[in-house]
Write a structure and sequence with these properties.
Blueprint: H1 9-15, E1 19-23, H2 35-46, H3 54-73, E2 77-79, E3 97-99, E4 114-118, H4 124-142, E5 149-154, E6 158-165, E7 168-172, E8 176-177, H5 182-208
Parallel strand pairs: 1-7, 4-5
Antiparallel strand pairs: 2-3, 3-4, 5-6, 6-7, 6-8
Helix pairs in contact: 1-4, 3-5
């Protein structure tokens, strides 16, 4: 699947006047994952057949990793759902994954806070074009440019992170390898999910107050 009408990171950044800051911002928050589950995911990461298609990568690697962390943080993972926000701006399509609270009816979401894009054929530039388009769309959907929206681009084995606030995109300079250190990746994702969960709760208090 793909999101947005622009094909490169540079095209998206120029169109929406995004300013890039490269730094290290991802932290770790320990998460307990069973040895059995770690072993299951590690084997999936090592099997060549799981890299033969985009669907295989999403189903055997990206989705299990995201869902384990999402379950701990009680933040649903929305897979391949249409997210048409602004057709004139090209912010339409089907994201690979969005992380967002469920609405009261349960089958739609509110406040998307993490946008995840697969780097098809290991092309991270195109992956960030898609993720950044989704992050900008999430800002508009949330109607709050001050709420941070996180972005992830991954091949399943390599994971990159960024966060958008207003028009400032902070991109972490470190790429994290699930093959080399899966527990560390889980800790990084757990920190990111917990940060977004706290942000959502703060926003709720601000609105209700």
């Amino acid at each position: 699947m793909s999101y947005g009408t622009l094909k490169t990171y540079e095209e998206v950044a120029l169109k929406f006047e995004i300013q890039l800051q490269e730094q290290i911002f991802i932290q770790q928050k320990e998460i307990q994952i069973s040895e059995e589950m770690l072993g299951f995911i590690q084997k999936n990461l090592q099997r060549r057949r799981n890299y033969v298609s985009e669907s295989a990568i999403c189903e055997t690697m990206i989705s299990p990793i995201l869902n384990l962390v999402a379950n701990v943080n009680d933040l649903p993972v929305w897979s391949h759902m249409r997210f048409d926000v602004d057709e004139t701006a090209g912010l339409i399509g089907v994201p690979d994954f969005l992380i967002a609270p469920a609405s009261p009816i349960g089958t739609t979401f509110t406040h998307p806070v993490i946008c995840v894009a697969e780097a098809k054929k290991e092309n991270f530039n195109e992956g960030w074009a898609q993720a950044l388009s989704e992050m900008i769309a999430a800002q508009r959907f949330n109607q709050d440019e001050l709420m941070e929206v996180f972005g992830i681009v991954t091949t399943g084995s390599i994971w990159q992170f960024a966060v958008l606030k207003e028009n400032i995109l902070r991109m972490d300079v470190i790429s994290y390898s699930a093959l080399e250190n899966l527990p560390k990746l889980f800790n990084c994702l757990n920190w990111l999910f917990s940060e977004t969960k706290a942000q959502i709760q703060t926003d709720k208090l601000r609105i209700s107050g």
